Amino acid sequence: MPQFEVLIVGAGPAGAAAAQVLAEAGAFRVAVVDKARLPRPKACGGIFPYRLLAKIGDSSAFPSDAEYRALRFSNRGNAVVSQSAHLLGVDRGTFDHQLAQRAVKRGAGAITLIEQFDVAMLSIEDDYVRISERTGNVLSGRVLIAADGAFSRIARLAGLNRGHVVRPAIDLEIEANPEDVAALGQMPAIDLFELDDGYGWIFPKADRLSCGVVSWSGKTNLNDALGRYLARRLPGGWRVLQRMGHGIPIYTSHTDIARGRIMLAGDAANLAEPIYGAGIEAAYESGMLAGRAARAICAGEDTPEAISRAYQQQVHSRIGGPTAAVARHVSPLFRERPEFFYRNFVAGKLGHEAFAARMDGLTFDPSSERQAMGLFA
Ligand SMILES: Cc1cc2nc3c(=O)[nH]c(=O)nc-3n(C[C@H](O)[C@H](O)[C@H](O)COP(=O)(O)OP(=O)(O)OC[C@H]3O[C@@H](n4cnc5c(N)ncnc54)[C@H](O)[C@@H]3O)c2cc1C
């Protein structure tokens, strides 16, 4: 007998969403394990579309650091303010912890949160899976949801999500000169082409600025690029509160993200938006879908193979679908020639404004996708 019905590895938004769905279903024994001690810091700009709150529910339980009604894009001095954005900014450590704790509370004893459990090994038996640490600690469950982030060890051990693409990024949490902060205008700034092959961002939060750079080729020295970027935008200087680097696993094409009793969710399944790298919303949504699929497996609604296959299709059509248009039409060029792409399709006035206009909180709006693609044809 496995110890748990469902094992969830990773207590980020994807894992917490899966746990929440299972907590609401009741009657399932679930373990959420994370290698970190919680709350853990997370390299992330921490902004996401306001609409995500409706999916999360209980929105009052998740106070945000900032709410934005506009988003500023610039490209070498050519700036556009998108007024259609409605975004929230959070501290990821606190936000993620609140999500996980809510699931535990809702589960009323059915959800066990296990911190500092670093999954190193996986074994797949006929009726259950086992995960273990190097130290020998073992957990078993009938279903495994891998929400263990951009460099998912479980994906690697299970042979899933092969050929995935991860972009390097640095996130800094800083304090800056009040005059420079005021000049930013209380809206997130995305500064395209601040480095040759990527962009920089500055997101004003309640008591600090979240800022960083991402490189689409991985060839740029990110520390140098970030230093130059901040020196331009914050001439009065800054004080670093936290510095973290991590990968952003962008969605480029459909890969296998589920098989039998194992399903990947969130960054582990490479669901970040392919141009800007936003992934919080996709992580939460895929976690919810994985939670529902796990519930269906435990309830014996169909075979694990059929249910996990359906999960994979759902993720690709609902979450990957909108971004796949970008991946299909734009990413081949974007992946190979990001500088060319930005110069020709984003930096030009028409392309730049189209990009700004169709951003609804850092994700592409599928309804305007075809229209925008016309501009790139
Ligand atoms: C610098 C940077 C800035 C970003 N800015 C934004 C932004 O502003 N907006 C946005 O939408 N997205 C942003 N993203 C992307 C976003 O952070 C991710 O898409 C999101 O965190 C994915 O959530 P997740 O739950 O899948 O994984 P994570 O939040 O990464 O959670 C994975 C969890 O798994 C745990 N774990 C990993 N390995 C193991 C193991 N072996 N055993 C046990 N536990 C394990 C980790 O400790 C972690 O808690 C940014 C990413 C980066 C790198």
Give the key terms.
18 strands; FAD/NAD(P)-binding domain; 27% strand; binds flavin-adenine dinucleotide; seven-stranded mixed sheet; 377 residues; eight-stranded mixed sheet; alpha/beta
Overview in brief:
With 377 residues, the protein is α/β, with parallel strands linked by helices.
What is the chain-wise order of helices and strands? EHEEHEEEEHEEEEHEHEEEHEEEHHHHHH
Going by CATH, the architecture of the domain at 4-45 and 91-164 and 251-327 would be 3-Layer(bba) Sandwich
Summing up helix and strand content along with how strands pair, one would put the structural category as: alpha/beta
What are the segments in which pLDDT stays under 50 over at least 5 consecutive residues?
357-377
CATH topology of the domain at 4-45 and 91-164 and 251-327: FAD/NAD(P)-binding domain
**How many strands, which pairing sense, and closed or not: the largest β-sheet?**
8 strands, mixed
Helix count, per DSSP?
12
Total strands: the figure is 18
Share of β-strand residues: 25-35%
Radius of gyration: 20 Å
Shape: globular
| Ligand types | flavin-adenine dinucleotide
CATH class of the domain at 4-45 and 91-164 and 251-327: Alpha Beta
Helix content: 25-40%
CA-CA gap between termini: 57 Å
CATH superfamily of the domain at 4-45 and 91-164 and 251-327: FAD/NAD(P)-binding domain
Mean of pLDDT: 86
